[in-house]
Amino acid sequence: MKTPNKFRRMVKILSMALMIFLQIYWYKFRKKPEKDWEMLWVKIGKNFRETLFELEGLLIKIGQLLSIRADLLPQGFISQIQDLTDNVPPSDWEEIQNILEGEWEEPIEHYFNYIDQKAVASASIGEVYKGVLKNGKEVAIKVQRPNIQSIINTDFRTLGIIIWFADHFIPLPKGFINLKVLFKELKQVIEREVDFSLEKNTLLFFKERFKNEASMVIPDVYSDISTSRVLVMEWVDGIRLTDESGLDQLEVSREELAHKLIELFLPQWLEPGTFHADPHTGNVLVSKEGKIILFDFGMTAEISQRDASEFQGLIESLLSKNYARAVECLMNLGFLLPEADPRTMERLLAELMSFKPQQLKEMDIMALKLEMNDLIQALPIQVPTRFVFLGRSVVTMEGILRGLATEKELAEILKPVFLDWLQKQGNNKWSFLWYWLQSQPLFKIIHSFTEFFKLPQKLEDIKENEQRRHFQFTIYENYKKQMFQLAAAGLGGVAFGIYTEHQLILQLSAGITILSSLGHVIFGYKLKKWLKYMHEKRR
Predict the structure, then answer these.
(1) Most exposed residue of 198, 300, 308, 339, measured as fewest CB within 10 angstroms of its CB?
(2) Which keywords does UniProt give here (predicted)?
């Protein structure tokens, strides 16, 4: 994006946001039924998508990140942006050459025999070119797009204005989404991804972690000519996992590839540490020898020790059909809101786990996904912010695996891989047997006697605390908004007093403006302090 287009870009984004706000206000004012609201969100999603493709750049990346927040955003909106591809036209070679020589402070010929001036890939943040070093090694050169920092500053400044306006004036549905948290999340992810030195460190971390894994290939990185804007890596050829003809020529079967992928990604999802959050078919290839090649470590996230233990317990509980234990793990992980009834959730899990894959042949898959999304949004369930990218990683890899093996084959592959992983972690079959015994009727009877009298009091305490916190939070929130509106009215009075030269009105309005502004700051401070007591969905 050229500098003169900054103003046009900002106006375009603000105009789109204003139209969305006006539509929401109109539907809220007319008290439209739920069906009409769903149609509105579909329409908003279409307009949003068109604007993203028109402006390109960073907005495509923001759209992709929003598309994985199905737990917070309406399904009608998500359905329009869930297949966005981060593929934009490449920059002029002269601009790329200027960036490379500016970062290296040397002419390109000092390091390279040759660089293909046609981009191999071009996304919103970076572009990839193929080159040959002086020693004859082929490399992939990932270069930050020209003016990307300017685009980031412009887009986030514009989004900040939109978030501020929506927070004070837009009647979003109660519990719908906390726009400030979403904005902070988007900003952190994109600022991290735009710094290639962080990606280089992550690549080196993964290379060390999987150095003894013979079935995996991670490209070497040339640290001496890599910077925060340029990342130079070993060139590795591979076959896409969606290339049917290419896969047919391999010596390994599709089931073996699925087995390797599960072996490589399951530990990332279950063990504490860093995991690859964007394993789409452009970032996960297979070599002619059948080895998995992993690229692009710009989007990663971490799992804490505590969360890893709870996830392990959740999977073991589901495999052993110990749904009471599974619900407990979901609560500890923060997936269930305080008002969730454990018994109801146990029955729901039992029904979901009893679903048989062969039933899929008798129903519309898309209809089933829509029903599941509606069910999840209707239940007291949320996805904590820290798990959004874990969900993205799992769902993306699931799509790849489904293209390689059937449901039955995947189930047969997954269970032994998981049990083998358990043994490597020091958990033998006795621990698995213990979880299985807990799910049996005898244990449930004994367990219910000890927990029966504790459960009502626990639920009552949780409910009472949450109600108190929510009540106090709402009071501060309302006072802050009232102070803002009063300050705005006071400013209007000051302007009127100056215009009419009426000193009493001017002085009274100025006093109201000062006092209400002070009140706005005080209640804003109290609200910020009170946030730490609120449930994550409210933050």
Answers:
(1) 339
(2) Kinase, Membrane, Transferase, Transmembrane, Transmembrane helix, Ubiquinone
